[in-house]
Specification:
Elements: H1 13-21, H2 31-39, H3 55-68, H4 79-100, E1 112-113, E2 128-129, H5 142-150, H6 152-158, H7 167-171, H8 180-194, H9 197-207, H10 213-220, H11 233-253
Antiparallel strand pairs: 1-2
């Protein structure tokens, strides 16, 4: 015997009216309201120590998150409470990911002591500690030692550093700029020396003239006996492996990146 399907409960007329009366607002429709609520939080953002990360970046992250979650807003409910919950959570996450996870444990330690402005004998960059023998915040404290080992490097990367007291280090830094076209030219020069004439012809067609694989296969006369495969699929795939291996060897042994006069001599 076949089981009879249970009749689905009918929605009340009142619920139907409520659903029909709900306007289907898009993110763009409510964008001015969203911007207003976000800007109200400017005064609560105090992470100014990251020079590369300001409140405009925070605004963009929050807007993107609201846009991503837009379909989760029940439009029968007010918008502002829903938006403000997201803003609060995102600001906490941003603060945690960019600062709180990496700062010294000393900032919340009861033994931490600030350097007095009148104390000229102590370096004001350092802070005092009532726990360590040296009286300074250092690795003799197990909490500081653990932070130094696991999080200090990330903290140093994230925290902005003024060049006021570090002009010598900044002045002696090597210029990391290089000409990408010049580097590509050097690599091509060495690849031609490493590859056979036929291999370099394929390399040139693919990576210098930027032709697609079908064009290269047609020019080189490659064919295939495999059903569903493009002509030259296997030949070009194998040659690409050769090119990758040769390029890696060249980058290990030759100075391709640095810029200097007469680099190929």
């Amino acid at each position: 015997m076949t089981k009879k399907k249970k009749p689905q409960p009918q929605k009340s007329e009142k619920l139907k009216e409520q659903e029909e009366s709900v306007s289907n607002f898009t993110y763009e429709d409510k964008s001015p309201d969203i911007d207003t609520e976000i800007k109200k939080r400017r005064g609560k953002w105090f992470l100014d120590s990251l020079a590369w990360f300001d409140f405009e970046d925070v605004e963009q992250i929050i807007r993107a998150h609201i846009y991503k979650k837009w379909d989760q807003w029940d439009q029968r409910r007010p918008l502002k409470p829903w938006i403000n919950k997201i803003i609060t959570n995102q600001m906490k996450n941003i603060l945690r990911n960019n600062y709180s996870n990496f700062v010294r444990p000393c900032l919340s330690c009861p033994f931490a002591e600030k350097v007095s402005e009148d104390n000229k004998s102590v370096d004001k960059v350092a802070s005092l500690c009532g726990f360590t023998k040296s009286g300074l915040q250092d690795s003799t404290c197990p909490l500081y030692a653990k932070w130094e080992k696991t999080k200090k490097s990330a903290y140093d990367i994230k925290m902005a550093l003024t060049i006021e007291n570090h002009s010598h280090e900044v002045g002696s830094m090597r210029d990391g700029n290089f000409n990408i076209e010049d580097a590509q030219g050097k690599l091509n020069f060495y690849m031609e020396k490493q590859l056979s004439p036929k291999q370099f012809t394929v390399y040139k067609l693919l990576f210098i003239e930027n032709k697609d694989e079908e064009e290269v296969a047609k020019i080189m006369g490659y064919k295939t006996s495999e059903k569903g495969r493009k002509a030259g699929y296997k030949q070009i795939k194998n040659l690409k492996k050769v090119f990758k291996q040769k390029a890696q060897e060249i980058l290990k042994t030759e100075d391709v990146i640095s810029v200097r006069e007469n680099p190929w001599i």
